[in-house]
Amino acid sequence: MSLTLRRAAAPPGSDADPAALPVVPARHPGRWLAALLALLVVAQFVHGLAVNPGWDWPTFARYLTTATILKAVGVTLQLTAYGTVLGFAAGIVVAFGRLSGSLVLQTIAWTYTWIFRSIPLIVQLVFWFNISYLYQHLALGVPFGPELWSFRTVDVLSAQGAAVLGLALYQSAYAAEVVRAGVIAIDSGQFEAAAALGIPRLRQLRRIVLPQAMRSILPNAANQVIALLKSTSVVYVMAISELFYQVQVVYGRNGRVVPLLMVATVWYVVLTTVLSLLQYYVERHFARGAQRTVPPTPLQRLIRRVQS
Prior knowledge:
The chain is mostly helical. The chain has a domain of about 150 residues: MetI-like fold, CATH 1.10.3720. It has 13 helices and four strands. The strands form two sheets. Strands 1-2 form a two-stranded antiparallel ribbon. A two-stranded antiparallel ribbon has the order 3-4. α3 crosses α8, α5 crosses α8 and α8 crosses α10. The chain is flat, with a radius of gyration of 28 Å.
């Protein structure tokens, strides 16, 4: 808590030395009143959680770590990981397509981003789930020519495969804009200086552009990953046993809606917290390019404050 110090006003007519006057901390009654009201609201909410039997905490505790729920958490993490890796891989390609000097590549990349950002995720998932209705067979071969290898769509694209494909394509459209924003945030003079020094284009990207762009990319990219984690709950429409779907199955049997929803809520909060911590340490790592010393961790800040 910071305190603003001010000197007490000298009595009228006093000839005392101003430097010798006592220093008293500034009082902030409005701030203290607002903090007290906020604490009362929080206390009322916590009290409601504790005494309201509708929350049914025994049922919550019984299902929080059951094998079924833990397996569903694993499926949620798998969908998030696959969607993130594939989505950002495709997003980087699309981003550099928009940044290229080719008008054709720019137009295709812009159209891709426009389409996949315009269609709701649930619509895309249902579409990919029914892709075999449009294409019973997929084939590799010469464009508009003979097929070299073909296979049935339903044999290679299961429900979970369709979910990963839909999440990755949806994520790639947003990832492309995140990456593009990070690259264009770099001063163009650095590209010109690197070109004047004869540094190859690929090395410019690897040694100059990406290390600086990462500081702009990481916060937005982390937001996208967290959003994707929560968006996996939409996959329930494909009957995949991720966390939200499994919770619905359980409360459909026992009728305990609220405690089962709290189970899903707590797991989403835990997973989001882990991702946020990971984001903090990755950002701290890349901060070394802009600061002589890395920022202190929250624990180090707490220790310094206690010692001071």
